[in-house]
């Protein structure tokens, strides 16, 4: 199952200056908020976006209780090149017993649909990358 996507879009350029960003050169707030809203409209409920020093993420919990994180960030310190990937959360201290990727299928399908339907998003490229 493809869990990593790259794409280009001017839709999510930061509107605040670099010194207002969580980590200058690492963007994604506008993308993460947009995604959480678009996914909710499709019935895929996530958390509100949260920040990290590398970008932003939204949490997703499958119907069977497994936890996932949809991570979003700019590529190349750019305001128009983006990537997202699904991170499977673990239930143990040492990273064993990761959530099965199949549990994230509704999230990944909705993400695919949202990105493909938005006219302002182009050059969408999916891949399988374990994060």
Topology:
Blueprint: E1 4-8, H1 29-41, E2 50-52, E3 55-61, E4 67-74, E5 81-88, H2 105-117, E6 122-127
Antiparallel strand pairs: 1-5, 1-6, 2-3, 3-4, 4-5
Q: How would you describe what is shown here?
A:
This protein is of the alpha+beta class and 131 residues long. It has one domain (4-127). The protein has helices at residues 29-41, 105-117, and strands at 4-8, 50-52, 55-61, 67-74, 81-88, 122-127. A 6-stranded antiparallel sheet has the order 2-3-4-5-1-6, covered by helices on one side. The longest helix is centred in the first third of the chain and has 13 residues, at 29-41.
List keywords for this structure.
131 residues; 6-stranded antiparallel β-sheet; globular; 28% strand; alpha+beta; 2 helices
How many separate helices?
2
**Strand coverage percent:** 25-35%
Helix content: 10-25%
Low-confidence stretches: none
Tell me how many strands there are: 6
Would you list the SSEs in sequence order as H and E?
A: EHEEEEHE
Q: Which word captures the global form?
A: globular
Euclidean distance between termini CA atoms:
13 Å
Radius of gyration: 14 Å
State the major sheet.
Answer: 6 strands, antiparallel
Q: How are the strands ordered across the major sheet? A: 2-3-4-5-1-6
Q: Quaternary arrangement of the chains shown?
A: single chain
Integer tally of domains? 1
How confident overall, as mean pLDDT? 90
By secondary-structure content and strand pairing, the structural class works out as: alpha+beta
